C-alpha cells in the first residue's frame, strides 16, 4: 500500500510539483492551497504524512498544525514543515512546540525533500512497530497473570 502524503502550500506550483515528484516515486498524494482546505482533506483522508508550509495567508502553517493536532486521528501524523525562514527560533517552534518532525528550507531540491520524507516515514514506521510490540507484550503479561 502506498503512503498517503498531503501537501499544504499556498503556492499551487509547489503543490503540483511536489505531487508529481511524489507520485513518480509511488506515493499517493493530496494537495491543498490553504490551511483550511488542508485541515478538511486531512480529516477526510487521514494521511500518513503532511508537508506543510509555515508562511501562508489566512490560517498559517503553525495555526494549521495546531488545528490538526486537536483531532485525535491526526495527533501523531508525521509533519514536515516548509519554511523560508532560516532562524532557529521558527524551526524550533515548529518542531518542539508544535510536533513537526522535520523541516525543509525553501527553495529546496526535490531530492532533499524525498530523502527527508523517506527518513521520516521509516522513523514513524519503527515507532509504530515498537508501540505495537509494547502493547502485545502488555497483553501477553496480562493474559499470563489471568488465564
Unreliable residue runs: none
Question: What is the rounded Rg?
Answer: 17 Å
Given the structure, what is the number of helices? 5
Instruction: Specify the overall morphology.
Output: globular
Reported for the largest beta sheet, the result is:
5 strands, parallel
Indicate the mean pLDDT.
84
Identify the strand order in the major beta sheet.
2-1-3-4-5
Characterise this structure:
This protein has a five-stranded parallel β-sheet with strand order 2-1-3-4-5, with helices on both faces. The protein has helices at residues 12-24, 35-45, 61-69, 88-97, 110-145, and strands spanning 4-8, 28-32, 49-53, 78-83, 102-105. It is of the alpha/beta class and 147 residues long.
Short description:
The chain is of the alpha/beta class. It contains 5 helices and 5 strands.
Main features:
5 helices; Rossmann fold; alpha/beta; globular; 54% helix; 147 residues; 5 strands
Amino acid at each position: 500500500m502506498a503512503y498517503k502524503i498531503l501537501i499544504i502550500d499556498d503556492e499551487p506550483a509547489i503543490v503540483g510539483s511536489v505531487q508529481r515528484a511524489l507520485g513518480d516515486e509511488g506515493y499517493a498524494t493530496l494537495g491543498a492551497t490553504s490551511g483550511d482546505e488542508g485541515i478538511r482533506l486531512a480529516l477526510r483522508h487521514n494521511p500518513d504524512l503532511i508537508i506543510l508550509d509555515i508562511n501562508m495567508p489566512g490560517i498559517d502553517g503553525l495555526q494549521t498544525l495546531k488545528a490538526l493536532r486537536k483531532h485525535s486521528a491526526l495527533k501523531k501524523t508525521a509533519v514536515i514543515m516548509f519554511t523560508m525562514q532560516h532562524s532557529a527560533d521558527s524551526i524550533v517552534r515548529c518542531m518542539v512546540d508544535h510536533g513537526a518532525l522535520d523541516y525543509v528550507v525553501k527553495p529546496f531540491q526535490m531530492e532533499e525533500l524525498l530523502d527527508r520524507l523517506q527518513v521520516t516515514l521509516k522513523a514513524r514506521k519503527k515507532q509504530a512497530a515498537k508501540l505495537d510490540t509494547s502493547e502485545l507484550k502488555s497483553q501477553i503479561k496480562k493474559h499470563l497473570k489471568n488465564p
